[in-house]
Amino acid sequence: MKTKPWSRKKKITVTLISLVLFLAALRIALPYILLHFANKSLAEMKGYSGHIQDIDLALIRGAYRIDSIYLNKTDSVSGTQTPFFSASVIDLSIEWKALLKGSLAGEVQLEKPYLVFTKDKVEPADVAEDSASFKKVLDGFMPLNINRFEINNGRIRYRDLTSSPQVDIQMDQMHLLAQNLRNSYDSTSLLPASVDASAQIYEGKLTLDAKLNPLADVPTFDMSAELNNTNLVKLNDFFQAYAKIDVNKGLFGLYTEVAAKDNHFAGYVKPILKDLDILGKEDRKDNIFQKLWEGIAGGVGQILRNHPKDQVATKIPFKGELKDPKTNVWYALGQILQNAFIQALQPSIDGEISMDSVENGEENKKNFFQKIFSKDQKNKK
Predict the structure, then answer these.
(1) Are residues 182 and 93 located together in one domain of the fold?
(2) 10 Å Cβ neighbour count for 72?
């Protein structure tokens, strides 16, 4: 017996309707399923505890959005929690620019991220460990290799609750854009990826510009950064806790360029202090030892000050192998005194460091102090 045409059409229609209803139900349930497994993963992270409020899907653009996430560090002994990371939004999606170039890669955008380092003391190794843990969190949510990463209105905070006084400093209004991290659309360039960042640090502005090759076997990059006009008075808790001094007035700037290639690096760092005043009438209540130490610090500042421009500055070049970085101390000292008595360093990036500086950089000319104190490394066995 042959199936009637109407009966066949009816079966196809029912099948299609069932499929549509199934997909619709799956679409409705999927965010809740993802939210359940995401919160379960956060709860099972060793040493951390976290929660996500909501997850939204955007299937048309191949994306999903995490709303209101936080992650706390948990003390293994006391069980107390301290804030580590939070964000109002994390948007994870396919990067269409890379897809059009034939590469399947993802992009991540964070809105108002907040990262807190709480330490007994400043330990770079601990900061690196926490940063690695944060990267693992992102890797768990993004199944694709991240090719584009953006931060809007971010904040990074450092706290030391054991110091006296307690230290609580931060940078805010942070924006960071990293592109082509997996070299998805510029494979011929030596430095295909770029990172541009800016932030506010106590009335001062930090900017960073870098070109790099994240896929190279050894660090390969060309970076410049500058910090302008940070108000040192707003960092007095930091100075009192770690240096036992008060700053009554002063602005801080920092300028640096660094390039690395084939396990070698070259660069310089140029710190500049303007209108520095460590001793003042605000210090009348300090004890005699505090005044003595501040007097020494202030005296050094006066000796090394360029009086026409009322600034203290030096330029410290460095170069070497990445496994054993060294800084030319005598060159630094000579530059300090030269700046103090002869000329002031201009508050800007010099534009003299590039990838060629790493490979073909000339040896620094010896100054007066180097000629007296440095040893000839060629004759040293």
Answers:
(1) yes
(2) 18
Whether residues 155 and 36 share a domain: the answer is yes
Q: Is 372 found in the same domain as 262?
A: yes
Q: Residue 321 in 3-state DSSP? A: strand
Predicted TM-score (pTM) of the model is 0.72
List per-residue pLDDT tens for the chain, 381 residues long.
455 566 777 777 767 777 777 666 666 677 777 888 888 878 777 778 889 999 888 877 778 899 999 998 887 666 778 888 999 999 999 887 877 777 788 899 999 999 998 875 445 555 556 555 556 666 666 667 889 999 999 999 988 888 889 999 999 999 999 999 888 776 678 899 999 999 999 999 999 999 998 888 888 889 899 999 999 999 999 888 887 878 888 898 989 898 888 888 888 888 888 887 875 445 555 554 455 445 545 555 554 556 556 566 778 887 877 765 555 545 544 554 454 444 444 566 677 778 787 776 555 555 544 554 555 544 444
Residue 1 placed within a domain: no
* Same domain? 99 vs 169: yes
Q: Is 126 exposed, middle or buried (0-12, 13-18, 19+ CB in 10 A)?
A: middle
Task: Name the residue range of residue 264's domain.
Answer: 216-381
The Cα–Cα gap between 358 and 212 comes to: 14
Q: Is residue 211, in this structure, part of any structural domain at all? A: no
Indicate whether 177 and 307 sit together in one domain: no
SS3 263: coil
